Amino acid sequence: MRKTKTTESFKRELKTSRPRILLIHTGGTFGMTPSADSAHLSPGPYLDRLLTQLPELQEIAELSLEAPFNCDSAALEPAAILQISNHIRERASEYQGVVVIHGTDTMAFTASVLGFTLADANIPIVLTGSQRPLAYIRSDARSNLIDAVTLAAKEIPEIGICFGDHWIRGVAANKNSVHRYGAFDSPNLPYLAELGLTIQIYPHAGKFKRNVPAGVSGRLDCNIAVLTPHPGMPWEIAPPWAKAVLIQAYGAGNLPMDRPDLIRLFKDADKRGLPIIITSQCASGGTDLSAYELGKKAADLGAIPGGLHTRWAALAKLGLCLGASFDLSAIRNAFATEWAGEPVFSD
What we know:
By secondary structure, this protein is of the alpha/beta class. The protein has two domains: 184 residues, L-asparaginase, N-terminal domain (Rossmann fold, 3-Layer(aba) Sandwich), CATH 3.40.50; 112 residues, Rossmann fold, CATH 3.40.50.40. The protein is 28% helix and 18% strand. An eight-stranded mixed beta sheet has the order 4-1-5-6-7-8-11-12, with helices on both faces. A four-stranded parallel beta sheet has the order 13-14-15-16, with helices on one face. A two-stranded antiparallel ribbon has the order 2-3. The N terminus is likely disordered.
């Protein structure tokens, strides 16, 4: 007689076939607890109980939980982001995937940095977090983490954010809401996957050019002056500490190029050898400095178009270029070149 598998044998088979996943907690709302007066949230000690609170995670993967630090992501510094990157690189060969629990405020920036520095990691690296803490009854933390671990177990070599109903490539991600559970979008690149009753992974997931230049990833220099213009804003030259300028211009890259003070900023940057990158205030679409006369004037004065780079991808790429001591020509080329699946050119 043919033998059938018992429930226990299924469980034993599941246990031996589970992929090994490294779960790194860095902080954020996910693990926060209310203060004594319930007036605000702060990092809490819940980590000791995470795997017992979510036992279903152990059905998906064999998890190793580590917490290099536990802080609000608004307080995260470049050194800590590189610490995450270096730690993943050191441990990647031991696991089939990595999940990083991270605060939402700067998650898109960290995802962009990791997208560039770990483009060759060849395993899934999934960032996630939540809008409400795991300790709350109506929290998105549970579903986000379960989905993230599920994606990390699928062996798709992609670095992205799993949040709400979507998986988004990290170098194309942007936070678009402080209250919706679907807090992130991908304005210039299709989602990697939709997460609903089933997980629908799209064909482009894990398929992108890996072309990060040699010398990138050792340092992240964020001495970047970021300017977001509004009508009537006075323009000043870049501060002494600035090594580059990022201007979030109007529309396709327009600026009031008839302003003498703005012209002075460009000329001073040229004299000091500071790159000026132009991105757009618009979430969707990108900069095309040839589209309008004002954009062309900026280009003639040396502005580098940011194309379809999000603000966060532009900051991450520029910070890595500065950290690698790239010259102006190399930085210009970087913004015209796909490093790790980021959308580069506007239509």
